[in-house]
Amino acid sequence: MEDSRREILEELRREVENCRKCPLWKTRKKPVFGEGPVDAEIMLIGLGPGYHENIEGRPFVGAAGKLLDKLLELAGLNRTEVYITNVMKCYLPENKASEEEIEACTPYLDKQIEIIQPRIMVALGNVAAEYLFKKFGLKRQSMGKIHGKIYRVSSLILQAEIIPMYHPASALRNPPLRTVLMEDWRKLGEHLKNSMNRV
Ligand code: URA
Ligand code: SF4
After folding, report:
1. Is the pLDDT of residue 199 over 50?
2. Is pLDDT of 174 > 50?
3. What average pLDDT is seen over the chain?
4. What is the largest CA-CA distance in the chain?
5. H/E run at residue 163
6. Fewer CB atoms inside 10 Å of the end CB: C or N, the chain?
7. For 7-28, what is the mean pLDDT?
8. Which fold has domain 2-198?
9. Domain boundaries, the chain
C-alpha cells in the first residue's frame, strides 16, 4: 500500500519536473516538488522556492528554512517526520506568484494532499493559508486573526486540521513576529501531544 502510494507520488514528481504549464518553468533550475514520508501525518505548505531552493531542488534550505528547523524543534518535531512542500513548485524570482500561476500549479499540491492524506496541514504564510481556506470552503481572513488556530475541515477525500502560521521569512523581515511564531509553534507541539492517537 505504502509502496504504491510512493510510486504514485514519484510519478507526480516526474510530471512536475517536465511541467511547462506556466511561464515559471523558464527561470527554474530545479523544481522543488517536496520531500518527506508518504505517510506523514503533518504536511507543511510554504509559498514556493527561493534562490537556494531553486539550486538544490529541496524546500526550505535557505535562511527561512533554518528558522523553520528551530520552529519544528519547538513543536517537538523533526524535519524527517513531516512532509514539506509549497504551493508553487518552480522558483519565484520576485517571491510572488500570480493568480494564473497558482491556478496552474496547485493541482500538483491537491494531488500531494490526496496521496499523503495528512492529519494536519500547517500553512506557512498567507498564500498557502488562502489556498487551503478556499479549497476547503473556509472564509478568507487575515493572518493576524487566524495564525496558530486550528481549523477542522473535511471533504470526500480527507478529514484534517489546517493550522495557519506566519511564514518564517516574515519573521526574518519583521523580528517582533518571531515571538508570535515561536509561541504558535510551541502551542502546536502541545496540541500534537494532546491529540496523539485520538484522530
Ligand atoms: N520559502 C517558501 O515558501 N518555500 C521554500 O521552500 C523556501 C522559502
Ligand atoms: Fe508547472 Fe508549477 Fe512550475 Fe508553473 S510553477 S511550470 S505550473 S510546476
Report:
1. no
2. yes
3. 96
4. 46
5. strand 159-165
6. N
7. 98
8. Uracil-DNA Glycosylase, subunit E (3.40.470)
9. 2-198
pLDDT of residue 197: 57
Helix (H) or strand (E) holding 8: helix 2-17
Residue with the smallest CA separation from ligand 1 atom 8 is 60
What is the CB neighbour count within 10 angstroms for residue 144?
8
DSSP letters spanning 69-118: HHHHHHTT--GGGSEEEES--S--TTS---HHHHHHHHHHHHHHHHHH--
CA–CA dist 57, 41 (Å, integer): 23
Ligand nearest the Cα of residue 89 is: 2
Distance 149 CA to ligand 2 centre (A): 30
Cell for 82?
513531516
| Tens-digit pLDDT profile for residues 104-123 | 999 999 999 999 999 999 99
Looking at residue 12, its pLDDT comes to: 98
User: Which residues, judged by CB distance below 6 Å to any ligand atom, belong to the binding site of ligand 1?
Assistant: 32, 46-50, 53, 59-60, 64, 86, 169
